[in-house]
Amino acid sequence: MNILAIESSCDETAAAVVQDGRTVLSSVIASQVEEHKIYGGVVPEIASRRHTEAIVGVTREALENADITLKDIDAVAVTYAPGLIGALLVGVNFAKGLSLSTGLPLIPVHHLRGHIASNYIAHKDLKPPFLCLVVSGGHSHIIMVEDYTKMKVIGKTRDDAAGEAFDKAARTMGMTYPGGIHLDEVAENGDPLAFTLPRPKVDGAPYDFSFSGLKTAVINLIHNSTQKGETLPVKDLSASFRYAVVDCLATNFIKAARELNIKTLVTAGGVSANSLLRRRLTEDCAQYGFNLYMPPKELCGDNAAMIGAQGYYEHQCGNLASFDLNACATMSIES
C-alpha cells in the first residue's frame, strides 16, 4: 500500500511516499529554519505563508523521487493535530483537496503518533507493546503504546517541554535558533558538574516532568552574572543544563519501565537526537536489560515519512476522515 503523506505542523513543509508503513520510497522536506532564525523562533504567520508556497512543490518532488504518480497512490495521510493552527490548516486543506480530486481515502494522523512511528521505519522488527519517551520542542510525554493506534499517557510535562527549555536556555546564552541543537554541540566540551541545577519533581505524579523551574534557574543564573559584570563559562553551563534535563527525562522513563515491567523502550521526537540523552538511555537500558529503540537523527525531527508510516496503521484500523476534517492546535495522543 502506497501512502502519500503531508506534514506541516510547524516550520517544515514535508511530503513523502511510504509503502506498507515501513518502507520510505521518498521523503522531501522544505525547512524554514534560516528565515525564522532572524526572529529567534518560529513566527506562526510566516510559517503558514511559507507552507502555502512550498507544499505543491514538495509533494510533486516526493512523487517524482518515488518514481510514481498519483495513480499509484492508495491513500493520502496528513498531520491534523497538534501544532501551529495556521500551519496545520495548510496541510489539512491541501490533503483534503487531493483526496477530493482523486477519490483517495483521507487519513488523519496525530503528530506525536507520527513521531513514534518513525521507529517503524528504522526498526523493521519493532512492534507494540512498548514504552515510548516522546520529547520535542512542544511535548514531553511517556507513552504506553499498547497497539499501533492504542496509546496511553503515563507521564507528561506539567509546564515547559524539554525542547522548549533547551531552546530558551540556549537563546539566553546567546545561541541562535534552533538553540537546542547548538547547546547540545557546545555541551560536549563542557563540565556537566560545574553548576548545580535543580531536578524538579511533581508530587503525586512520579512519571511527570516539570522543566519551568529548571529553565528559570539557568536564566536567572545568567542574568545575575550579567548584572554583576561577570562572564559565565558557556560550555560548562550548557553541559550542566543538558545534564540536568537529561537526568530528569531518563530517571522518570527508566523508573516507569521498571515499575510497569516493560522491557521494550523507544524514544521519539526532536530531542531524542540529543547526544547525551542517547548515551544515557543506552547505558541505563544495558544496565537493566531493556531493549532500546531510537530513530536515527534524520528521523527525529519533523518529516512526512513518519506520518506515512503511522497513516498505514491508522488506515488498517479504519481511522479515516471525511471532508469536514479540521486542524486542531492541541489534542491528546489518546484521542
Produce the secondary structure layout.
Elements: E1 2-7, E2 12-19, E3 23-31, H1 33-37, H2 44-65, E4 75-81, H3 85-102, E5 106-110, H4 111-122, E6 130-135, E7 140-147, E8 150-156, H5 162-172, H6 179-187, H7 212-227, H8 234-260, E9 264-268, H9 275-288, E10 291-293, H10 305-316
Parallel strand pairs: 1-4, 4-5, 6-9, 9-10
Antiparallel strand pairs: 1-2, 2-3, 6-7, 7-8
Helix pairs in contact: 2-3, 4-10, 5-6, 5-7, 5-8, 6-8, 8-9
The CATH homologous superfamily name of the largest domain equals ATPase, nucleotide binding domain
Indicate the proportion of strand residues. 15-25%
Helix and strand composition category: alpha/beta
Number of helices: 10
Determine the CATH topology of the largest domain. Nucleotidyltransferase, domain 5
The N- to C-terminal Cα distance equals 25 Å
Low-confidence stretches: none
Strand element count: 10
- How is the main sheet built? 5 strands, mixed
Q: From the alpha carbons, calculate the radius of gyration and give it in angstroms.
A: 20 Å
CATH architecture call of the largest domain? 2-Layer Sandwich
Shape: globular
